[in-house]
Backbone:
């Protein structure tokens, strides 16, 4: 099993993790206002957990998100995307039509269904990358 | 000898690319003028930049293109990621059983 690093690295990454996680969430949530979006924010979220993985070993990261949760959340992100796209057909318009009310330009709750798409793809990218890391570490680090 | 020939090929192709780019590249900040139907004086890029905030409600034009004008395409990108994750999981699980 992968061992953790020294006390210095552990402390710094423990202190840094909430800010990195918050930054990823910020990129995802403000995807329709500022540069960034679901894909980029999801990668930032995955990098936050990867930092814990490097500092604390497999147990430290799996205490936050274990492999089963990651796989379930990835499928949930895909479901959010597809059902939000199908919502356009359900309402009676085209597939992937922007059906929710737009709101006022520049607010966090605006732009119809674009924040929902960003949220879904953010979850999907973050947990998908985590699933890849876990699957590779399971081989490199021996048994579960 | 092979290395010299390869280096010469790289330099020739590089010089070709640099000179053609210098000659044909658009000036910075301009769009390729592509007429859309009856719109004579604007290109697709200018029209999207002008209309995207009203038609999609999003302040970020890139997001409005990625998730509104081309949402179906982005669903395909998410599917590519899903397939990659499935492939990695499948590959590494098979290796674990054999070892």
Residues:
């Amino acid at each position: 099993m992968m061992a953790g690093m020294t006390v210095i690295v552990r402390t710094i990454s423990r202190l840094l993790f909430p800010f990195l996680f918050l930054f990823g969430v910020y990129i995802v949530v403000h995807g329709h206002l500022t540069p960034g979006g679901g894909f980029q924010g999801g990668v930032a979220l995955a990098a936050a957990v990867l930092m814990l993985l490097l500092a604390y070993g497999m147990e430290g990261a799996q205490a936050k998100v274990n492999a089963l949760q990651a796989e379930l959340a990835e499928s949930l992100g895909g479901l959010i995307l597809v059902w939000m796209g199908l919502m356009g057909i359900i309402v009676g318009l085209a597939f992937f039509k922007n059906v929710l009310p737009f709101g006022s330009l520049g607010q966090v709750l605006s732009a119809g269904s674009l924040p929902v798409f960003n949220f879904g793809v953010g979850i999907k990218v973050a947990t998908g990358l985590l699933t890849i890391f876990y699957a590779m570490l399971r081989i490199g680090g021996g048994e579960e | 000898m092979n290395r010299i020939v390869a280096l010469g090929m790289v330099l020739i192709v590089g010089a070709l690319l640099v000179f053609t780019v210098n000659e044909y590249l658009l000036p910075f900040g301009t769009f390729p003028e592509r007429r859309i139907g009856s719109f004579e004086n604007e290109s697709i890029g200018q029209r999207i930049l002008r209309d995207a905030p009203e038609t999609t409600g999003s302040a970020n034009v890139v997001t409005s293109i990625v998730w509104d004008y081309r949402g179906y395409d982005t669903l395909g990108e998410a599917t590519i990621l899903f397939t990659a994750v499935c492939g990695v999981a499948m590959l590494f699980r098979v290796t674990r059983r054999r070892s």
